[in-house]
Structures are given as C-alpha cells and as structure tokens.
Specification:
Blueprint (H helix, E strand, L loop, with lengths): L1 E4 L14 H7 L4 E5 L10 H7 L2 E3 L2 H5 L3 E3 L17 E4 L7 H10 L2 E4 L14 H18 L21 E5 L3 H13 L2 E6 L2 H11 L3 E5 L2 H9 L3 E4 L14 H4 L7 E4 L20 E4 L2 E4 L9 H22 L2 H5 L1 H4 L2 E4 L2 E2 L2 H6 L5
Parallel strand pairs: 1-2, 1-4, 2-3, 4-5, 5-6, 7-8, 7-10, 8-9, 10-11, 11-13
Antiparallel strand pairs: 6-14, 12-13, 14-15
Helix pairs in contact: 1-2, 5-6
Length: 360
C-alpha cells in the first residue's frame, strides 16, 4: 500500500503522523511518502525519514493522493479538496463538533477512521489516551502560567507559600485527563477537587490520591459551589464520539473571581463550559466575564517531541493492520472497527449519525 504523511497545517501543530521508526516498520512491505519537513517540528529530519525508507515529496497534493493518509489532526478547510473516493484517512476527527468536516468527508466518498473512537472491550480508548495524558498534564502547566498577573490572571501561585493559602484547582471529570491534571496540580501543592458522576471512578481516585484530592459527586449544586471558588477550572469531560455536555453556564462563569482561569481540554468535542470557544497556540486566551479562557484544541502540539512518539507507540499496530489488509482489517479487529466514522461517504458511527441525521 502507498501511505501519505502530510505536514500538519493547524496553527503551531508540530506533531507528525508517523515517526521515522514507524516508517521503517511500514517500509518493509509498503511505500511511505512524507511531505517535506513534515517531521521537522517533532525533531525528525527529511534525511531520517529517507534513511528509514520513506520517499520525501514536496507537493502536498501528491502526498494526499495516496491510498491511505495518516495524520494527527483533522483536515482543515483548505485540505478538503484533497479528500477523494476510495481513500482511507486515519487521524483524529472529532466529527460530532464539526459539521463542515463531516459534510466534506461525506461528499468526498472518503473512508475515515478516527483515533478517538477506537475502543477496547473495556471502554478504554487506546489512541486517545496518550494525548489525554499529555493534555491533562499540560492543562495545569498552562493554567499556572495564565494565573500570573502579567498573563491576565489573578496573580495566584498554585502551590502557595508558607503562610499563604495555595490556589484552588477544580477539575470537571475524573477520567484520564482529569486524573493526570490532578497529579500535576497535587505535585505543585494546589488544593484540588475532582467532580465526577461515576461513583466507582471516584472510589478508584480515592485509592490513587487518598486525602490529597477532594472527590465530589457531580450535581448542579456541587458544580456551582466548586466553580465559584476555583482559581483554575479544568474541563475534562468526554462522551465518546459525542459533543461534551455543557456543565458550566455563562451565569456561573460570571460568578468566578476576576482573573480566574478556565481551560477546557475537550474543546475539540465542543467543551463543557458555555463561554469557552476554540483558540490557538498563537492566540491561546481571551477574557470573558472577567475570566481568562484557554481553548487550544491541540494542546499536545506544544510538546511535539514527546507527543508524536507517544502517539505512534499506540497507533503503529493499527496503521500496520490497515496497510496490510485495507478495510478488511476492520472485520478482523473489532477494536479498530469502532474507529470507523465514515465509510465511502456514509456516516457509520452512531453518535455522529445522531448529531447529523440529515446527512445520513
């Protein structure tokens, strides 16, 4: 199979779909075409790809013309015209929150498999987890930065100092993102609350954090009370394949203290905070209701050296299966089959069908 690896064009997105090591594994039986400088931001030179067996191509259209395209982020509007029938696209998609991309994929006849909906029998998301770990940890790192007065924040040090209370971190959702965010926040010395609707998950978190994190069951009243007191509010709510529910209203945001910071890691799935909208690494924040909002949807792109390798560690086995067997790999591997969102122009994934019933 011929496999194309285009350069990512999302704002300051420095990750790349395949590392040279992944190319080397694929090149034993397949031909990999890598766009010039596609791996530069992650620390991989064209020469490294060539040594691994790849062909370096300067023309993005030619890279996109291959049987399978392996990316990191969803195609942007300027890339829609590259999509074509009988092509296999393997990348993050988050279609439930993106009508224009969904329409483009349907109209093109492309078959699209989304990293974020590949699902194990136990409900784990093996291709989303590595980026969730990174995004969760970065959310507190970024949050601490934007709490600085020079960045528009309250001027609060999350860890506090002797004689001065530490900052309050409230995390909505106790999944992978929320857990990793809590680890970093606890390490910084902050006061941390995690709010989740799954009692079993809260029990697991208690075994992990003990008394270092306050674990709260999610109710409207509990969220309202916690959010008002938060210096840093982190949205970490994920409903697989669907838009995240809105848990924090504009009215509640307006009751937060001026200069508090909100970061919603699930902004690419619509986010769970009414006032938060997607931003970019170039312009990461804006102020609304007196609160600093951070809505960068590709947070792991800030640490591409780590993120690209972590992603490839998880995606490569599936890429190999698709390269070796094409769409037949979906019949052979039910875990991978759950990643199928659109097949030859037809919406397949139930949650996306539900959102875009008029396109089915």
């Amino acid at each position: 199979m011929e496999i194309g690896v285009p350069k990512e064009i999302k704002d300051q997105e420095f990750r790349v779909g395949l590392t040279p090591n992944s190319v080397q594994a694929l090149s034993k039986n397949h031909t990999v075409f890598v766009e010039t400088n596609a791996g530069k931001g992650s620390g991989f030179s064209d020469r490294q790809y060539q040594q691994a067996g790849a062909k370096i191509i300067a023309d993005a259209a030619e890279v996109w013309s291959k049987e399978m395209v392996v990316k990191v982020k969803e195609p942007l509007n300027s890339e829609y015209h590259y999509l074509q029938p009988d092509q296999l696209l393997f990348t993050y998609l988050h279609l439930a929150a993106d009508r224009s991309l969904t329409e483009a994929l349907v109209n093109s006849g492309t078959t699209a498999i989304a990293y974020e909906t590949v699902e194990l029998d136990n409900g784990m998301l093996p291709l989303l987890t590595p980026m969730s770990i990174i995004a969760g940890r970065l959310s507190v790192q970024f949050g601490a930065r934007y709490l600085e007065k020079q960045q528009g924040g309250r001027g609060v040090l999350l860890g506090g100092v002797p004689g001065v209370s530490p900052g309050q971190v409230v995390i909505l959702g106790g999944g992978v993102v929320g857990t990793e965010a809590a680890k970093i926040a606890v390490g910084m010395g902050a006061k941390v609350q995690i709010i989740d609707i799954n009692v079993e998950r809260l029990g697991y978190l208690e075994s992990l954090f003990g008394s270092r994190v306050e674990l709260l069951y999610s109710t409207t009243a509990q969220i309202e009370q916690a959010v008002k007191d938060a210096d840093l509010l982190i949205g970490a709510v994920l409903v697989v394949g669907k838009k995240a529910p809105t848990l924090v209203s504009r009215r509640l945001v307006a009751q937060m203290r001026p200069g508090s910071v909100i970061i919603d890691v699930a902004v690419d799935q619509g986010g769970c905070i009414e006032t938060l909208r997607p931003t970019s690494h170039t312009q990461p924040t804006y102020e609304e209701e007196g609160v600093v909002h951070f809505g960068v949807p590709n947070m792991p792109g800030a640490v591409p050296g780590t993120a690209t390798q972590a992603l490839n560690n998880s995606t490569l086995p599936y890429v190999l299966q698709l390269a070796n067997h094409g769409l037949a790999a979906l019949a052979q591997n039910q875990v991978l089959a759950k990643g199928l969102n659109i097949k030859q122009g037809q919406i397949i994934y139930p949650a996306v069908q539900e959102v875009f019933a008029d396109l089915v």
